[in-house]
Amino acid sequence: MSVIYDRVALIGLGLIAGSMAHAMRDGGLAREIVGYARSAETRDIAREIGLCDEVFDSAAEAVKGADLVVLAVPVGAMGDVAAEIAPHLKPGATVTDVGSVKQSVIDAVAPHLPEGVHFIPGHPLAGTEHSGPRSGFAGLFRNRWWLLTPLPDSDEAAVQRLTGLIVAIGAKSDRMDPAHHDLVLAVTSHAPHLIAYTMVGVADHLRRVTDEEVIQYSAAGFRDFTRIAASDPTMWRDVFLHNKEATLDILGRFTEELFMLQRAIRMGDGQQLFDYFTRTRAIRRGIIEAGQDTNAPDFGRSGETKAAKE
Ligand SMILES: NC(=O)c1ccc[n+]([C@@H]2O[C@H](COP(=O)([O-])OP(=O)(O)OC[C@H]3O[C@@H](n4cnc5c(N)ncnc54)[C@H](O)[C@@H]3O)[C@@H](O)[C@H]2O)c1
Ligand SMILES: O=C(O)C(=O)C[C@]1(C(=O)O)C=C[C@@H](O)C=C1
User: Fold this and answer.
1) DSSP assignment string, 110-146
2) What UniProt keywords are attached to this protein's entry (predicted)?
3) Residue 271 CA to ligand 2 centre (angstroms)
4) Is 0.90 surpassed by the pTM of this model?
């Protein structure tokens, strides 16, 4: 493959930036990959494992001369990072982000960026419960969606070039309106994470009553919840605080459905339960038939756990 950007600067050196670095290097997609992370420990690890060609001690230094700047920090930190790098950006550079929420990132970042710099917000729909500079791997984005939410005045050539990188990394690219993105992700990612966190919290309370049985005999479904609930607390705190309206809307709908099923159980209404589960099974089968179930089993790669990062 051929070089798409001469110099790429990764701001934040965790799971997503690290996976991009591996994928870009494997594909020869950038002549030079440089990076910056806030914590000195993360920068030292990144240097030790050769994650980038060079790791700088400031974001301002890292973005100098970069053709593509990727903001890969928690969504609550995007605005401050944008303010810090803005005076140092090369004219004509593209700035993108990988945040899990789009409208609030646009509101926080766009006002800081100078004219002549192309801001193209994005979100790869791929991740694991691991984080930190050791957790990335080249195959993370393979066959996964990577959504772009360009602004009305985004430069089409710049969007095409970024799309070229995303496709070369192995992902599938699509465009979406930012508010619509936030609603869709509230359903497919944000509310499910909150439910997983809650379920594991409930089990933790119960564990004290049942003397560890809940954890010891945890079945596959609950294990999946614990994987999700091991995700990074900073990242997910920021997701919920910055996609508040959509998440609360979906959680309201979720609660109504839960009460409806709760009532069916109480009333012994087996038909209602059966019909409901038949409908949800058909949805799952539809996803598989459409080839959308790309959650390959090798995603549980070694790396720091979210809790042990930074
Ligand atoms: N993990 C996922 O499943 C996933 C998937 C898609 C998108 N995202 C999004 O990607 C972004 C990064 O997530 P990740 O999983 O790579 O996180 P991570 O915790 O693995 O890495 C985050 C990096 O940002 C750095 N950082 C934190 N605050 C900073 C600040 N104020 N200034 C500079 N650096 C800072 C940390 O040192 C770390 O290097 C987040 O916005 C997240 O919403 C995550
Ligand atoms: O597989 C996982 O660990 C994930 O939760 C990844 C996941 C998701 O919900 O699908 C999490 C957050 C992101 O913004 C994108 C992807």
Assistant:
1) GGGSPTT-EEEEEEES---SB-STTS--GGGGTT-EE
2) Amino-acid biosynthesis, Aromatic amino acid biosynthesis, NAD, Oxidoreductase, Tyrosine biosynthesis
3) 34
4) yes
Give residue 283 CA to ligand 2 midpoint distance, Å.
19
Q: 110 and 274 in contact (C-beta within 8 Å)?
A: no
Regarding the beta carbon of 243 and ligand 2, being less than 6 Å apart is answered no
CB atoms within 10 A of CB 292: 11
Q: Check if 125 has its Cβ closer than 6 Å to any atom of ligand 2.
A: yes
Domain 5-176 has CATH 3.40.50.720: yes
Which residue type is seen at 293?
D
Extents of the domains making up the chain: 5-176, 180-309
Beta-bridged to residue 174, according to DSSP, are 147
Q: What is the pLDDT of residues 28-66, one digit of tens each?
A: 999 999 999 999 999 999 999 999 999 999 999 999 999
What is the distance in A from the centroid of ligand 2 to the CA of 51? 22
- The answer to whether 101 touches 182, Cβ cutoff 8 Å, is yes
Q: Is the Cβ–Cβ distance between 54 and 145 less than 8 Å?
A: no
Q: How far is the CA of 100 from the centre of ligand 2 (A)?
A: 8
Asked if 42 and 13 count as a contact pair (C-beta separation under 8 A), the reply is: yes
Of the bound ligands, which one is closest to the alpha carbon of residue 105? 1
CATH code of 180-309, in short, is: 1.10.3660.10
- In this predicted structure, the answer to whether residue 217 has a pLDDT above a threshold of 80 is no
Residue 265 burial (CB < 10 Å; 0-12/13-18/19+)?
A: exposed
